[in-house]
């Protein structure tokens, strides 16, 4: 079966008690057993069953099963947010003294997690230009334990050369972690290009409507956890086999960190998945039309959309994303004042810190998401002061263009006191 069918039917078919076709929301903390011996067996993972929702929950399981199918993985753990997914994956793999090689130009929250928070535990990160895989290779040291990429970096919109980077990761024996939030499994399966772990913020396109926060971690089954780099995970493999990493995560790290998904949220994510393929087609279509419009507009200083033939990542986006280049684009009208006037004049697009909503969203990254970084750091991350980030929504493309057109016109009128 193909993605559209699996996104609607996989992971859950119908509720065994009443036949409900939508997944029941199991709003329960814990699960009772008739005998002490039975609970003990489930506790010790000698029998299947649920114990406590922080560790596992039937509604969350339905989402996890579906996400694992959609990314062709061995399993999945749903989490409270995208950040909690990334944090749990990092804590599961890293110890004090370890080193991360990460793509530059990625999500600000992830940069801060690596640079500000994990650094407090003596975990160092080198940010490199993922468009130049040789920089990744050069940054690897004895201490490196993983390589971290985004499928399209948010907001620099770099498309990594997955094949070359995976070859580097394989040669070094390192797991390759890909945050696939921006492309989603409807467009891209990182595991097909060698990624070992895929992480998501499901708050974005998977939810699709800006109504719930969630995340997910998927093991694609590509990595050999017995290769000596992660001995505590390898030990799990003796009982859990290919589920070694996810067992280590669920029964230790995720359990201890406590960032579990809320069952009602998992319900919303499952609903979102059912229309994901349809929505991503429309998101990409609208983004391309808007990008073409902005490219031809005399007031636009620059436009960055990997789906435009002039873009330096056009070939990569064609190769890896089957001609779709996502919903995100960035552009500049020149400087922060113009950007502010443009944003203030928009009538349809919302000015807010999110992506992946049915609504078109804009933000001025330099003074919001990246305000905590210095001007020099922002420059390194590719955050220009005039940059406006757009997450193109599902509205009529003509209406979006008309909204941008009138706002660009207004942004040019200098306000005389
Ligand atoms: C939003 C986002 C995250 C963080 O997800 P939350 O659900 O907000 O915690 C991580 N990575 C990317 C690419 C994102 O866009």
How would you describe this structure to a colleague?
This protein has about 425 residues and is an alpha/beta fold. It is built from 16 helices and 12 strands. The protein has helices spanning about 5-10, 35-45, 60-70, 80-95, 110-115, 135-140, 160-170, 185, 230-240, 245-255, 265-275, 275-295, 315-320, 335-345, 375-380, 395-410, and strands at about 75-80, 100-105, 125-130, 145-150, 175-180, 195-200, 215-220, 300-305, 330, 350, 360-365, 385-390. It has a 7-stranded mixed sheet, sandwiched between helices. A 5-stranded mixed sheet has the order 8-9-12-11-10. Helix 1 (about 5-10) packs antiparallel against helix 3, helix 1 packs antiparallel against helix 11 (about 265-275) and helix 9 (about 230-240) crosses helix 10. The longest helix is centred in the C-terminal third of the chain and has 20 residues, at about 275-295. The protein starts with a helix and ends in a 5-residue tail after the last helix. The model has no long low-confidence stretch (mean pLDDT about 95). It binds pyridoxal-5'-phosphate.
């Amino acid at each position: 079966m193909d993605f559209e069918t699996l996104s609607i039917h996989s992971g859950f078919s119908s509720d065994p008690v009443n036949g409900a076709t939508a997944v029941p929301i199991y709003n329960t903390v814990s699960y009772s057993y008739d005998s002490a011996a039975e609970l003990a067996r489930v506790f010790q993972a000698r029998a299947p069953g649920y114990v406590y929702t922080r560790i596992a929950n039937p509604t969350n399981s339905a989402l996890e099963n579906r996400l694992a199918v959609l990314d062709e993985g061995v399993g999945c753990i749903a989490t409270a947010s995208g950040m909690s997914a990334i944090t749990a994956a990092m804590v599961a793999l890293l110890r004090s003294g370890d080193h991360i090689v990460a793509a530059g130009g990625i999500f600000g929250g992830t940069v801060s997690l690596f640079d500000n928070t994990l650094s407090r535990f003596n975990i160092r990160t080198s940010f490199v230009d993922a468009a130049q895989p040789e920089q990744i290779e050069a940054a690897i040291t004895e201490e490196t334990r993983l390589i971290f990429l985004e499928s399209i970096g948010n907001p620099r919109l770099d498309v990594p050369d997955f094949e070359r980077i995976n070859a580097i990761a394989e040669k070094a024996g390192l797991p390759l972690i890909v945050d696939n939030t921006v492309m989603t499994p409807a467009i891209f399966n990182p595991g097909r290009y060698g990624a070992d772990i895929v992480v998501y913020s499901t708050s974005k396109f998977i939810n699709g409507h800006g109504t719930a926060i969630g995340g997910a971690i998927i093991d694609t089954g590509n990595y050999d956890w017995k290769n000596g780099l992660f001995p505590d995970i390898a030990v799990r493999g003796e009982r859990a086999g290919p589920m070694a990493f996810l067992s280590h995560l669920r029964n230790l790290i995720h359990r201890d960190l406590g960032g579990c998904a809320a069952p009602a949220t998992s319900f919303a994510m499952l609903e979102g998945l059912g229309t994901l393929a349809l929505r991503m087609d429309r998101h990409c279509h609208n983004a391309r039309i808007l990008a073409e419009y902005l490219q031809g507009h005399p007031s636009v200083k620059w436009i960055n959309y990997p789906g435009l033939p002039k873009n330096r990542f056009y070939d990569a986006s064609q190769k890896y994303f089957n001609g779709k280049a996502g919903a995100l684009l960035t552009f500049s009208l020149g400087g922060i004042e113009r950007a502010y006037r443009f944003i203030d004049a928009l009538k349809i697009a919302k000015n807010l810190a999110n992506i992946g909503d049915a609504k078109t969203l804009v933000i001025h990254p330099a003074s919001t998401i990246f305000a905590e970084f210095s001007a020099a750091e922002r420059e390194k991350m590719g955050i220009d002061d005039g940059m406006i980030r757009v997450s193109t929504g599902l509205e009529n493309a003509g209406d979006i263009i008309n909204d941008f057109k009138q706002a660009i016109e207004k942004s040019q009128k200098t306000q005389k006191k």
